[in-house]
């Protein structure tokens, strides 16, 4: 619309000027003084108005460009005065100013938003000009960590703390580096990383600093607490059946001493019980040594073990613990001669954990039953399942039960299943779970 209005006005003025010039030419040819003077005056007036028409638009555009040059987007061009095309032009200028102001406001809001985020993070950040040392931006975290007041140039740090200046600003690092900084007569451990970036002709350096002193101390403290929790949990799981079996054997011996005729001593049972205690005690010692360096284990003490022998050993250990409980524990194998290569002490630990969990899960179940079955696929790989008819595991926590220290029990440490998964991983196997509130839970060990 602006374009059409402008063309019409320009064309009209050009036609008037052309008519004036033709009349002037006619006056010269006919030597008509009145026609010559009149057409000459009209030609001058027409040229003036054409010039004024053109120059006024250029002045308006030049004025707008001047305001853009000095970033003065607050100016308002009148949309109610002047010719129609000028008003339309002013309207376009105002729309451009509105758009640029909106963009600037949005950028300012984003900058403030980013600034607030960087202020909230517990990481020190500073950016400065490499040539002048002028600080472009820094956050409170860096100032608090380094115990510095706000400063506008890094030369302030160079004069006040030369050693800190050298570590922080005068050293270039290609990767994140751990550095000990001396502050307030103590060494502070921090992680420092930096990068250089270019903005037009200026080069800037961005330095990121993170205080890891408190984190290291907290992690060390947590690691000790978790280690003690794990060791206590696993040792108690092993000691409980040993203590129960030892108490049973002691009662048999005491009864025999008091009345040998009514309570004859079965040496075979006594020997089997003592062998179970000895074997599990050795397994417990083995477990303690293995757990101490579980993350560093590169091989296991593998031996060929018959599944029946493994099941018998666990059954003997769990027999005393289940004596006063209504839980029926059954071991089944499809092939009596089935055998596989495992670290028997660690796998015993896994199965004991799973059986104890199953006992807890069946506390409110009528006729509680736990079955431990072993099968072998066509490739000769052994699979052991621990199945119970307990209350099952809620679906919303099934993905979390293997996370270390996650537990739904009030007295649980949340380490049994996590450790079982690690042991199976060491065996290049895996542990899988299926659970249903109506039918119970099945843990499958695949070797």
Automatic annotation (TrEMBL):
It comes from the Bacteria. Its EC number is 2.7.13.3. Keywords: ATP-binding, Kinase, Membrane, Nucleotide-binding, Transferase, Transmembrane, Transmembrane helix. Signal peptide: none annotated. GO terms for molecular function: ATP binding; protein histidine kinase activity. The chain crosses the membrane at residues 7-28, 34-51. It catalyses: ATP + protein L-histidine = ADP + protein N-phospho-L-histidine. It is an enzyme of class 2 (transferase). Pfam families: HATPase_c. Residues 230-447 form the Histidine kinase domain. PANTHER family: SENSOR PROTEIN CREC, SENSOR PROTEIN RSTB. This is histidine kinase. It comes from Leeuwenhoekiella marinoflava. The lineage of its organism: Bacteria, Pseudomonadati, Bacteroidota, Flavobacteriia, Flavobacteriales.
